[in-house]
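Before relying on records like the one below, remember that each one covers exactly one chain. Contacts with other chains, cofactors or solvent are not represented anywhere in the record.
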Amino acid sequence: MLFSPSLTQNKQAEYKVKIHLQRSSVIIFLATIFALAFIISPYWMIPTAKPTRLLLLVASITFGGVWAYTSGSEFKIFINKASKIPFVLLFFIFFILNIKHLYSGIPWRGDEDHHIQVALITFGLISGPSSATGILVPALFIAFAYIIWTKPKWAIVIGSFTLIGIITYITIWNPVQDIQAYVFLRYPFVNYWLYTVPLSLASLISHPYHEIIFRIIPFTSVVCIAWITFQNTRGSAPLHRYLWAITIGTIPLINYYASIFYLELPATLLMVYVCFHIPELLIDDFDKVKQNLAWYALIFIGFIKETAIPFLLAFLLCRYAISLFTTIASKTNRENKFITLRKELTLGYSVLFPLFFYTLLRSNLSNSREFIPQIKNLWDSSVYLVLVRSFAEQFGLLLLLFISGIGILLYRKLHKEAALYTLIILGISLLHVIDNRLYVGYSRFNLFIFPPILVGSTILFKTFSKRKPVQFILICLTFTTNIILSPINLDGSKQAYWGNYFTDTSEHYYVPPQVKMEFLASKIRHYPSPQPKL
């Protein structure tokens, strides 16, 4: 296990780094994330009426404060002292395997160019002609994180004055007035603030107009997924653990999106970590759950992508069913049952509120595409045929290994985990079946199905930890299937129409990279347009 929130004294000797965060520090950190997502991301400035702006600002601060206060708790993390070695090794291996993909030109169609434009606009809001921003922005992030960790009382004062200053600046000078609401609300805007860090660092060396800069976060997410998988296969031979982690990174669906700028992979990474820690998240008391690092991965999912709602609802449905059954079966008094109910409702608020708040703002402040259920799709057999085909093409042999893994869970009477993994897949599939029929089976939407499939297949892999030949055969078969189904061309471009079945919404690579990048470079205000040839 990569991180562990609680260990015995004997086990702690195997770990080198201990991180102990007080509850106040955690609450401040959560409040900072919420402020970045809903206050510094100026949704509240979109309405033209000043009373409405003020109301939104007050609501954001109030509900965000409540969310941070109820979601945070003191906890300890023990980091495996040897975990950095496999991460560095896996990063190097995946970089070699994906180097052409990472440097391939920006495609037309798809949404990568949209995400790059918004990332550049966001970078333009905080940067100036001087490259000093490349040092200032990361330094401020690091300094404030250190203050939160060591001096939480000072962090409250510094954070409050900083937030007041930012709100005042946005209110008076309104630097976002020329940016359409659609830019802020099409996708959760907090994602793009994250990209200002690599863009700032890149500006120190030359300029931020390199394709790889925008793809480094999805790529690193895939490396982290492989790394977490490696850490959760203890008991197997080290070589087999590495080979299995590398094989996971070559799954057609994961390999395709590892080198393209979309928002789903960071959320997928969080889901993977959550799925590997499902037993304790489902069963433990809320106070104990908040001391688990996986809890924070769970509540951050709602900040990244609104289509993660089926994953979060599936978790809450299973959690509430277990809690209800346990509470009814227990012989505790009414007061204790009421306390349990209050804790579970608070847990639900912590999990769902960021996503709910964003969805509420988006539906009322922009004209982005809304979810309109089309129940007639449930009786369309072609929809299900395409869905099954998409699973086979995008997951390869991993899908069969997952089914076997679910069988092992049922055999071991671990029904809760098996039910949740199955419910996640069915919930996400159902969401897209009753949505617009054109997007059924679309590869990007299937990324959120990958976490339970990964965990289920890894359960099968670990079952054969004492049978090395069987493990090696599983690795070879899975890896070979991945290579055969790979949608990546030898030149680094991706196959057109891959992962599309009823419509064409995927990437097409046929434009010289510098032409598209020069156009995108003009999105930063303080750079002249057109940008000189790169």
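Strands lie at 3-4, 15-21, 75-80.
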